[in-house]
Amino acid sequence: MAGLNDRILILGCGCFGVSTAYHLLKRGFTDITNLERSLVVPAPDAASNDINRIVRSSYSDRFYSEFARDAISLWKNGEEWGDSYQESGVVVLGFPEPSPGATIQGDLVGSYSRESYNNDLAIGADVTLLETPDALRSAFPSSTPVASLDSKTGYLNKDGGWADAGKGLKRMINRVTQMGATIISGKEVKELVKELIKDGTGFKTIGVRCSDGSQYDASLVVSALGSWTPSTFPGLNFNGACLATGQCVAMVQLTPEEAKAYRKCPVVLDFNTGFYIFPVTENNVVKMAIHSVGYTHLKKNVSTPRTISSDGDRGLAIPKQDLGYLRSYLGEVYPELAAKPFSATRLCWYNDSPDGDWVISKYSGDAGLILATGGSGHAYKFLPNIGSLVADLIQDKLSPELIQKFSIDRPQGKADLSRKGFTQELPLDQLCTLSDLLL
Questions:
Q1: Where is the FAD dependent oxidoreductase domain (predicted)?
Q2: Does residue 361 belong to any structural domain of this protein?
Q3: Between the CA of residue 431 and those of 236, 298, 320, what are the distances in Å?
């Protein structure tokens, strides 16, 4: 167990990294340093640095529902988060069509959406079943041009919404700096520095070496590098629990007048297709994406993020077929928006585990290394509290159940039921161009 005066080195300034720093500092740790590969903090291409992220408690796993409920209560603290969090409500779609004569409740036992609904009810969330197209449309402002929604059913969770991800991350970075953390940017970690344990039984991480030759020593290293984890440390055994995947995102730019109709909309999340869409932002942008298994980008047999930092503007391009899927799904919710050109796209890179559970784990055989990663596309909403789990692990306070749940060595037989499909290699010869964004 690390002591309060031990030097803790955290790799990364994304969701896991800064939340861990925050919770360690709150508990009295005095020597916290975060290293960030980007010259700019937060990194422009970090998954945690975006215009919005869904904040929902709608999970089929009761742990995440309860932990999200706690996070939402923290997001509501205006002194801490300002206007980073917007409680627009979340419409959860994905309930299958009821069979003739059956109730929606009877047909949905065991489904992801049904279990999410049951968990939301159990934790006291303000939820309403939307069993008819009229009921679904009533979840939107009457002035919003919504599709017929004839083939869809779902529910509205009023206790949720979205967060301005970049704004929230910047606030926490500023907070940990004020609390005494040292943040050093422009430090691309290249290797772990290890020493032989005195009894000769193995090695312990005692720091890191960066690409510029600088070295940082520490009593404990916490790797929170997100989707850059596998490519930074290809020699580590991640037991199949870490895979960098690119997720497809697109935006529509509206005029101030057009934006008025979409300002008060809920977040919409369809677990059948993975499609989700946000209300319009203060800059009149509507963002949508597909929560899927995503694309890999193999370099030396390791999936590596392809972003605006590594590949310029072309690092933002998504496959043309996914552009078509996004427009089609968009038309099923907001048909008038589907008739507009896309203004931009992005590949958002996650570090995925097969079962969707995070990796918050001591690395086997190395007392100096902890992994805090594997966000699997659903970590940002927990920015206020996810670091408490890492701090618990560092202080040997994490429950045995959660140690097993988040272990890097856990069995990998379970699938992430919130996503469908099979991971594909990113087709570089089929990426969209600016002309493809037009109708």
A1: 7-393
A2: yes
A3: 32, 16, 6
CB 261 within 8 A of CB 141: yes
What is the count of structural domains for the chain? 2
Report helix, strand and coil shares of the chain as percent, to nearest 5: 30, 25, 45
Residue 105, pLDDT score: 38
- Please, are residues 189 and 337 in contact by the beta-carbon 8 Å criterion? no
Confidence of residue 96 (pLDDT cuts 50, 70, 90): low
Return the structure tokens found at 406: 């988040």
pLDDT digits (tens, 9 = 90+) for 43-69: 999 999 999 999 999 999 999 999 999
CA distance 84 to 75: 8
Give the domain extent around 33.
7-50+166-240+354-405
If asked whether residues 254 and 313 sit together in one domain, one would say yes
Token couple for 192:
């772990």
Beta carbons of 398 and 302 less than 8 angstroms apart: no
Residues whose CB is less than 8 angstroms from the CB of residue 79 and which lie 6 or more positions away in sequence, other chains included: none
* 435 CB burial (10 A radius; 0-12, 13-18, 19+): exposed
DSSP code per residue over 231-242: HH-TTS--TT--
One domain for residues 373 and 398: yes
Where do the H-state alpha helices sit in 224-319?
Answer: 229-232, 256-259, 308-311
The three-state secondary structure class of 386 is helix
Q: What mean pLDDT do residues 258-272 have?
A: 96
Structure-block tokens of residue 286: 């509507």
> Does the pLDDT at position 107 exceed 80?
no
Query: Does a structural domain hold residue 82?
Result: no
Average pLDDT over residues 382-404: 98
Domain presence at residue 61? no
Is the per-residue pLDDT at 392 higher than 90?
yes
> Rounded mean pLDDT of 73-100?
87
Please give the mean pLDDT across all residues of the chain. Answer: 94
- In eight-state DSSP terms, residue 265 is P
User: Is residue 72 classed as helix, strand or coil in its secondary structure?
Assistant: helix
Q: Is residue 379 part of a domain?
A: yes
- pLDDT band for 103, please (50, 70, 90 cuts): very low
* Cα 146 from Cα 210, distance rounded (Å): 51
423 near 295, Cβ under 8 Å? yes
Residues present in the chain in total:
439
pLDDT (0 to 100) of residue 98: 47
